[in-house]
User: What shape does this take?
Amino acid sequence: MEWTAWFDAPEYEFARQVLQRSVATLYFVAFLSSLNQFPALLGERGLLPVPEYLEGFNRLGRPSLFRWRYSDRLLRTVCWAGMAVAATLAAGLPQLGPPWVPLLAFLTLWLLYMSVVNVGQTFYGFGWEMLLLEAGFTVAFLGSDQTPPPRTILILLVWLVFRLEFGAGLIKIRGGQEWRDLTALYYHHETQPMPGPLSRQAHLLPKAWHRLEVLGNHFAQLVVPFFLFAPQPLASAAAGIIIFTQLWLVASGNFAWLNWMAIVLAFAAVSDPVAHALIPAIPLDWGATSAGAGTDASAGSQAPVPWLVVVTLATVLLVVLSYRPIENLVSRQQLMNASFNRWQLVNTYGAFGTVTKQRIEIVVEGTLDAEPWDGADWREYGFKGKPGDVRRIPRQFAPYHLRLDWLMWFLPLRTVHEEWFYAFLAKLLRADRPMLRLLRHDPFDGEPPRWVRARSYHYRFSTRAEFRATGQRWIRTPLYVVIPPSRLPSED
Assistant: This one.
């Protein structure tokens, strides 16, 4: 069947290698993050225990291996299994076999991680969780080294990048006035959830540069994505612009694996000839030598017929599921980071429709004193990622995801009276070791405090003159006590 040769895309072998290995690597990071944090946050004795959540769990609505039973041991088994499978894919081992092997490996990652996300509650309510799930499912159908990359799957991956970028651009244009008057970057580097080592330097750049940043962002998200579907080398050039802008976001902030996933997915539009022209070490005929592709196009596709059938069915499924995201993109009530099916496939994405103008931080303190007066010896708990110590340089953690630190950023934007936050304070009063391991600094070295409280502060980056005078990277101003001194009921 000569017409089936169109399904083969041997000139995108480099793209396939990047997509499969990199997506697997990000799955490894996601499982590692869950292994280290899930039991303390959501485990049997966590802040929002999964066993209690499962009592009201809709067993038909959200697929999860934990819907019948949860234990921390089972969670750790799932994470270790996911990391093992991800590591083999990142090394390219399943790709050496028939296409069914990497297919099953990626679908295993998808199902295992979806099981975690679907019981993760607010700690897993981020858009990049859906993005990882959708990317893992889609790259599963890229096949192995024994078959040419399927063109339809590459197009669907480009469609995913388009939704990710264009959806984010529309959210901004339809959102706060700061995106339309080009002032959003006056604030963003300073008020973003978790600044990185270069965030202060980025914030201190001239305002004219920040306006250019916003213009560049609008161009990269509202114009460039359409060229991903253009002929080469325009498609590769569009991918290059997206990669460049995402690398700037990586350098200036911590957004878990969101930016890294956008970079990886953009490679779906990069052809081997373009990659070879930029980096001659990349073989020009990689696809022709890896799967026997390009031998005789008149003979039709080089892939086995059963594999073509599976790829076609997956393509039809993802195309049909694209209806709701398309409808959402053109809607004035555009949803941000939403899934329209319980399998979290073909979702809608977007972030920062409005930019926070001021940074308010919740600082948690404890004291060993018997009475919690203002004159007591209040000591501050230190978090790994969120601002605290005014002299400390913000650290780079992405693509690793610090879930507790991210939720702390949302408290002043919503309310501090969250169930998980009160449970967190109770854990501190008990000097709970798993919880303390999630922190950078315990001021009591494992000893339980008598009292804890939460205070709000206004934070801003210091100017260069202020830094030279004080050595502080942050200037903070105390506001008020948001949760008064509290202790365990047993001590009353």
